């Protein structure tokens, strides 16, 4: 009879008909996480967290058996060297399943406009660590400034010869084009 059987009475493990007596342990082998979004080399829309800071949701396919993921997010300097690398341990109960096969996590207070970020995921359970996912990148574009004055009134603007236009500043913007 082929397969794996355990005889608890005499601590015998039988694998494909061969008996192994004594102490034995099993090692869980985890697969590689597959990144889902934001897509590699994309410029996704950046949302705002409850405090008004830029944020983005990272998603990946769940790895069977994994109960924790380490998410690594980093930037590169002008020479291509890794800078500002941040590691986040994300347990499966913190991630939002959408649907059940996908994990989603939103890092807070680390995403800034006009920046390229690189990220990857490493699944784990206890001492078992799976292989690193592929590394993807995304670019956080600039958000549009919010007009402050003049305010639109019933489809028209209250223009005068000396009208002054003002708007909120956009982090990362070095110039504005008025059209």
Please give a structural write-up.
This protein is mainly beta. 0% of the residues lie in helices and 39% in strands. The protein is built from no helices and 15 strands. The strands form 5 sheets. Strands 8, 9, 11, 12 and 13 form a 5-stranded antiparallel sheet that branches. A 3-stranded antiparallel sheet has the order 1-2-3, with no helix packed on it. The protein has a 3-stranded antiparallel sheet with strand order 4-7-10, with no helix packed on it. A hairpin with a 4-residue loop joins strand 1 and strand 2. The chain is elongated, with a radius of gyration of 26 Å. The protein starts with a strand and ends in a 12-residue tail after the last strand.
Write the layout of secondary structure elements.
Blueprint (H helix, E strand, L loop, with lengths): L3 E4 L4 E4 L2 E4 L13 E3 L9 E2 L5 E2 L2 E4 L6 E9 L5 E10 L10 E4 L9 E11 L2 E2 L6 E5 L6 E3 L16 E2 L12
Antiparallel strand pairs: 1-2, 2-3, 4-7, 5-6, 7-10, 8-9, 8-11, 11-12, 11-13, 14-15
Radius of gyration: 26 Å
Helix content: under 10%
Measured by DSSP, the beta-strand proportion falls in 35-45%
Mean pLDDT: 76
Give the terminus-to-terminus CA distance: 79 Å
Contiguous runs where pLDDT drops below 50 for at least 5 residues: none
Counted beta strands: 15
Shape: elongated
**Structural class of the helix and strand makeup?**
mainly beta
Largest sheet: 5 strands, antiparallel
Order of helices and strands: EEEEEEEEEEEEEEE
